[in-house]
Amino acid sequence: MSHQDHMTPPGSMLLERYAPTGDGGRWVALVAAGAALGAGALVVPALLPPDDAFNFLAVLVAMIAGVYLGFALTDGRVRAALTEELGIVFFAVVATMALSTREPLWLAGGLFGHAAWDAIHHRRGLDTAMPRWYVPFCIGFDVVVALYVVIRF
């Protein structure tokens, strides 16, 4: 059993259990599940005035990078933690730029950029141990929220 398999929390087994078999089908199902959660999360900014919605989404950009730090700390390796801390700093800077300039491109770029950060973790391009379902799930979430930013702002 790999370190990555050992880290899979019991609740996440539902995502893997009900996804179609085969890596490609599983990926599509997990991206779709992340996109559905992203769409559901958009209820909050959709109900807010534009400035408040923009602020909410900028904070979200900074927060989502923190999930990888949680995986890195669970992983236990210093290199993994340092790599993910760099990611947090980068996305915090992007969120700060979005807030200070009020420029939607920073916000959408941060979300699309986080989807790219997710993709780099696929097939362990960055070697932080995490549940296998998380990368495609987060890509789906990030892309849906980024598209919302492009459309609304």
Topology:
Elements: H1 3-6, H2 13-18, H3 23-41, H4 43-47, H5 50-75, H6 78-101, H7 104-121, H8 134-152
Summarize the structure.
The chain is mostly helical and 153 residues long. It contains eight helices and no strands.
Chain oligomer state: single chain
Say how many strands there are. 0
Low-confidence stretches: none
Radius of gyration in whole Å, from Cα? 16 Å
Counting helices, strands and paired strands, the structural category is mainly alpha
For the termini, the CA-CA separation is 46 Å
Biggest sheet overview: none
Number of helices: 8
- Tell me the strand percentage band: under 5%
The outline comes out as: globular
Element order: H for helix, E for strand: HHHHHHHH
Percent of residues in helices comes to over 70%
Mean pLDDT: 87
Keywords:
8 helices; mainly alpha; 153 residues; globular
Task: Provide a descriptive summary of the structure in words.
- Helix 5 (50-75) runs parallel beside helix 7 (104-121) and helix 7 (104-121) packs antiparallel against helix 8.
- The relative contact order is 0.19.
- With 153 residues, this protein is mainly alpha-helical.
- 79% of the residues lie in helices and 0% in strands.
- The model has no long low-confidence stretch (mean pLDDT 87).
